[in-house]
Write a structure and sequence with these properties.
The chain has ten helices and no strands. It has 263 residues and is mainly α. The radius of gyration is 20 Å and the shape is globular. Keywords: Cell membrane, Cell shape, Cell wall biogenesis/degradation, Membrane, Peptidoglycan synthesis, Transmembrane, Transmembrane helix, Transport.
Length: 263
């Protein structure tokens, strides 16, 4: 693996870990009764994700340039490694989910007192507190997995979340691979990634987010129990993981469709 590929994989891992972590922040907000504060904290985490995404795009584009001059016999394999790092980042967030919910509950409480994120960082980040971080570890238990039955959660919501995640994960990579397949339309193909991710974002915003927001409000008002709320976020994370695995199958068909479309 080249240095640029390792860097892209690390950035992809960070992006998908951060985005999956958004579920932990929202659940922490529900449990603490401060959903609005948690959403502001979620925005900061998403900023880290989007910044990593911009840096990643630069290096991924460089891989296409190298493939055109040196031959692209490893390009498909390299892209599959990148998609694999997306799955790994999602899996890491799932395993750390109980820990992150506990930590974010404390951060939300501190943020309310501090009043701003810079003040929160000044008060919360210290060598002594970093040493005590291990005390906050909450490992997932098998009982949590047994409770994750689909009953009560719309199957179409989970399928749509998996499909949208798969499209979002592979959109840029398929567009870049298409630009390698049809070099005479390279710019047109690479720019189509924005349209693909835009469609995925619209589907997520219109069909998935409202249901999550509705259940979050019901949990805050006490109409829905903690067990059902935990199950919803657990299943959404697993469907997101399934979406990153689905992206492996979508890479080449997506690139072929984009190449045909721009031609």
């Amino acid at each position: 693996m080249t240095t640029s590929l390792i860097l892209v994989c690390v950035l992809t891992l960070i992006i998908h870990a951060a985005e999956t972590m958004g579920y932990a922040i929202r659940l922490a907000g529900i449990r603490s009764g401060k959903l609005a504060v948690s959403l502001s904290l979620s925005g900061i985490i998403m900023l880290v994700s989007r910044t990593s995404n911009m840096v990643q795009a630069t290096f991924t584009g460089g891989m296409i340039d190298s493939a055109k001059t040196e031959g692209g016999h490893r390009l498909q394999t390299d892209f599959q490694y990148i998609i694999g790092s997306a799955s790994l980042g999602t899996l890491v967030s799932i395993l750390l989910f109980p820990t992150m919910v506990f930590i974010f509950m404390r951060l939300i409480a501190h943020l309310e007192v501090a009043g701003s994120f810079p003040a929160l960082v000044r008060e919360s980040v210290s060598l002594d507190k970093l040493k005590r971080a291990s005390q906050n570890v909450r490992l997932p238990r098998w009982e949590m997995l047994r409770r994750l039955r689909i009953g009560g959660i719309p199957k179409r919501l989970l399928l749509l979340n998996a499909a949208v995640t798969g499209i979002y994960t592979v959109g840029v990579l398929s567009a870049l691979y298409a630009s390698y397949l049809v070099p005479e339309h390279a710019i047109k193909a690479s720019q189509s990634s924005g349209l693909i991710n835009g469609i995925a974002t619209v589907l997520l915003t219109v069909f998935v987010d409202p249901h999550v927001a509705l259940l979050s409000d019901k949990a805050l008002s006490g109409k829905v129990g903690n067990a059902e709320t935990n199950k919803m976020f657990g299943l959404l994370m697993l469907s997101r993981l399934a979406g990153t695995l689905l992206a492996q199958l979508l890479l080449l068909p997506g690139a072929a469709i984009i190449a045909w479309w721009v031609s």
